[in-house]
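Hi there,

I know you've been waiting on this one. I reran it after we fixed the sequence typo, so this is the corrected version. Both the input and the resulting structure follow.
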Amino acid sequence: MSHAVTRLLDRPLTADGTISRRFRAARVHDFRRGRPIDMTGVPPGAAPIMPPPDGGDHCARCGGRLEPPTVGPHRRCLGCGQISYRNPTVGVAVVLLEGDSILLGRRNGGPWSGRWCIPCGHVDWGEDIREAARREMKEETGLIVEIGAVCAVHSNFHDRSQLTVGVWFHGRPVGGVLEAGDDLDRVGYFPLRAPPPLAFPTDATVISDLGRR
């Protein structure tokens, strides 16, 4: 095989800027045999070579080992040098009011099982934040809602292993039937000034603020 053809096959990027299959396969082959991962010619923004094997201690770009977690939340890959950023995810919640009462749901699993919350969930990758709020409300309460203005924004620190930034929207029901689903086993309206035991501290803050308005 000529030197020119060999160089063409070993190019890391295809014409559209994605990592070539041949290059990706070669890097995975190296990783599985414990060899150093050569990422020469691959820009930092390129798609990952392979997903992290355990989701935490391996680089999403090349599959190499990350620095020990003692260095902080942002860890550098010991193979290719790429920094793995650990940032909070985005959560959404929808506030539905009836007079001086608010719609809450009781959680049916996890460490907060049996406690109540404003219906909420996570924004999926590639999903618009307001569409995520509508989807979560339909899944958890059976209601189709119109999303209004932002009610509150808070950082959530109650689960130190999964930090989030929460956005609470005002909402208005426009369809559906109220029925608990997904992470909830009961739903109902409660007075803003006398809510049941709550799962999340930031929900308590939002409800308290609403009760003073």
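Quick highlight: The chain has four helices and ten strands.

Best,
R. S.
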